[in-house]
């Protein structure tokens, strides 16, 4: 059996060795917004299923999805502030997304209170309509923000 031995080790510091890696991907708040939008869309799906098959399980799924979406909305808001303060690249103009997303989050908060009531009438028709409205606001916000961003990039 042969053994290897290290006789000498030298650690040198070189000031020119800096990381050339650039941050990749999107700002973290955009990813969190995507998760919360998916939770809100999932709540609409479970509300629709509950409307057709009034099993309490689907109503519980809806309130849990709304709650998870609200938690992710709060985390997205915190991440947005951190990205903004940190000087991370944020799409311009940002106001349509901020306003639309705030409206969707407030509607979802109200929807959580509606879903917390007992019985079939907690979801149908008010909760179902609110879930649909939240998804419609998110789709409209994404469309308007995308159109404004494209116009802003073109220079118009």
Please sum up the structure shown.
The protein contains 4 helices and no strands. The chain has helices spanning 28-52, 56-85, 95-115, 126-154.
Topology:
Elements: H1 28-52, H2 56-85, H3 95-115, H4 126-154
Helix pairs in contact: 1-2, 1-4, 2-3, 3-4
Q: Which stretches of 5+ consecutive residues score pLDDT under 50?
A: none
Main sheet specs: none
Total strand segments: 0
Mean pLDDT: 85
Strand content: under 5%
Structure description:
The protein is mainly α and 156 residues long. Helix content is 67%, strand content 0%. The protein has four helices and no strands. The model has no long low-confidence stretch (mean pLDDT 85).
List its salient traits:
single chain, 156 residues, 4 helices, mainly alpha
């Amino acid at each position: 059996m042969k053994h290897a031995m290290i006789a000498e080790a030298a650690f040198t510091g070189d000031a020119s060795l800096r990381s050339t890696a650039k941050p990749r991907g999107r700002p973290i708040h955009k990813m969190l917004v995507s998760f919360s939008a998916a939770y809100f869309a999932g709540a609409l799906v479970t509300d629709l299923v509950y409307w057709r098959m009034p099993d309490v399980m689907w109503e519980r799924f809806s309130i849990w999805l709304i709650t998870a979406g609200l938690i992710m909305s709060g985390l997205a808001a915190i991440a947005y502030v951190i990205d903004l303060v940190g000087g991370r690249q944020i799409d311009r103009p940002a106001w349509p997304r901020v306003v639309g997303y705030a409206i969707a989050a407030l509607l979802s908060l109200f929807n959580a209170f509606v879903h917390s009531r007992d019985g079939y009438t907690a979801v149908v028709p008010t909760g179902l309509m609110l879930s649909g409205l939240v998804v419609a606001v998110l789709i409209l916000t994404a469309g308007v923000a995308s159109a404004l961003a494209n116009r802003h990039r073109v220079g118009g």
